[in-house]
Amino acid sequence: MWSFLLSLGLTFGSIDLKQLPAQQVEQIAKEVIHKMQADLHMKPSLTVTKRVEPTPLGALAYLGGKCVIVINTTENAWSQWGRFLNERNRDVWPQIVAASVAHEIGHCMRESREFTASYTLTDSTFQGLENTGNSSVQADMIFKQELFADAVAVLYTMEHAGENADKVIQAIVQAREHYGKNEPTHNTSAVLKRLLGGSMQRLDNEPVGSAAIRLLAAQRTD
User: What residue ranges do the domains of the chain occupy?
Assistant: First the structure.
């Protein structure tokens, strides 16, 4: 299964490998994997390659628990970093990349499958998924997977981005809002805003995946 945060759609700008070297993204990804490995049942592997998918960063998650974080360096895919990165937030590009990696690691977590199976979407959320072109079951699954991974990325950012956390999270939410106009299954912004309005702290010794499930369940509305 190929899951990704940086999906094809309307871009804000275009980023090339000179502006954001693949080696820098790879090093950031290694650091994020190291910081999050205690929260994972199985540490994901990391590969830098060229793929046909139009996204520079993704996760290949398998039923057996194996997961591969893929950095895709094809030109068209790499340009999609422009969805998040621009001159206004250049000072926090490394943290935005780190949050994107944390999102993909969220797709690797066993808790992601638990959340997808147990979380129930509200009627208002389903209204936004009606015209996606997917079956309702598939749209439901995709939205919940993206929502869980976004919550993991937000938790990671709040714990590791320091004083830049708000700026990084704002970039994520804004990208979701804009992309959601074309792809409602990825428009998690409304739930994320509710999530950010409350306490985002983990309990003592609570894995980040369990924290994401608990916090998202508390934001569910009828």
Answer: 2-219
